[in-house]
């Protein structure tokens, strides 16, 4: 049972480059989330999705885009990488956004923009 | 505007003793509070949660207490073990907002043998 899988684990980008962080889950969860964690800080929500075809902005969406064409996948796109986007990115999923079920997290993608 | 705060960046405890991690929040519109544990190079792992209508929830060595009037919750670990050494995040879930979580900054717990 893989849970939430994120790829790649590490990546170094140059300023202005683009990339897509991949996230897939095999638990048939409708709810999926992208967070970023900066050093010494908690996780901040970038985007989330309550089901295929539905996405919404979180607290820090600027510079990012998402899509949700299937239940399993929730990729995060950086269009023009900036040093401020250097962070660790976590994807999470949940079966029920209103009940007692917790979010399950992937192991993260460590991204450096140089 | 930090809605969820963990004011202690670190905590050191002797093995076998109690660890108490604290969390404060400023918004009353949360329906669940959760604690996550995080090891280096791994994602956060769910530990325990509490509904806003409860004041205590217990799971083995872990107990969470919620004081709504003080807008404060705490996680008690008894007895503490070296394997409990990790960063602990408090998180709050706003009512009816797609299940998203608002996290505190984290507290790094070190349990000494």
Task: Outline the structure in words.
The complex is a heterodimer of chains A (114) and B (113). Chain A is built from no helices and 11 strands. Chain A has 114 residues and is mainly beta. In chain A, strands 2, 4, 5, 6, 9, 10 and 11 form a 7-stranded mixed β-sheet that branches. In chain A, strands 1-3-8-7 form a 4-stranded antiparallel β-sheet, with no helix packed on it. The radius of gyration of chain A is 13 Å and the shape is globular. In chain A, 38% of the residues are buried. With 113 residues, chain B is mainly β. Chain B has one domain: Immunoglobulins (Immunoglobulin-like). In chain B, 0% of the residues lie in helices and 56% in strands. Chain B contains no helices and 11 strands. Chain B has strands at residues 4-5, 10-14, 19-25, 30-38, 45-51, 56-59, 62-67, 72-77, 86-94, 102-103, 107-112. In chain B, the strands form 2 sheets. In chain B, strands 2, 4, 5, 9, 10 and 11 form a 6-stranded mixed β-sheet that branches. Chain B has a 5-stranded antiparallel β-sheet with strand order 1-3-8-7-6, with no helix packed on it. The interface between A and B is medium-sized, with 28 and 26 residues.
């Amino acid at each position: 049972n893989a849970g939430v899988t994120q790829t790649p684990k590490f990546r170094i980008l140059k300023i202005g480059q683009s990339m897509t962080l991949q996230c897939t889950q095999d638990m048939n969860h409708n709810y999926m989330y992208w967070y970023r964690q900066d050093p010494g800080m908690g996780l901040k929500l970038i985007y989330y999705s309550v089901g295929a075809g539905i996405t919404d902005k979180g607290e820090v969406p600027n510079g990012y885009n998402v899509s949700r064409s299937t239940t399993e996948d929730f990729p995060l796109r950086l269009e023009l990488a900036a040093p401020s986007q250097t962070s660790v990115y976590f994807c999470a999923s949940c079966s029920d956004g209103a009940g007692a079920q917790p979010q399950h997290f992937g192991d993260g993608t460590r991204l450096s923009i140089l | 505007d930090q809605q969820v705060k963990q004011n202690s960046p670190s905590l050191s405890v002797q093995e076998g003793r109690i660890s108490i991690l604290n969390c404060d929040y400023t918004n009353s519109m949360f329906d669940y509070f959760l604690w996550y544990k995080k090891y280096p190079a791994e994602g956060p792992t769910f530990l325990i949660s509490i509904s806003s209508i409860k004041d205590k929830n217990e799971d083995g060595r872990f107990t969470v207490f919620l004081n709504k009037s003080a807008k404060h919750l705490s996680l008690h670990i008894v007895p503490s073990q070296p394997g409990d050494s990790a960063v602990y995040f408090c998180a709050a879930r706003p009512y009816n907002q797609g299940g998203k979580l608002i996290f505190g900054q984290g507290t790094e717990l070190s349990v000494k043998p």
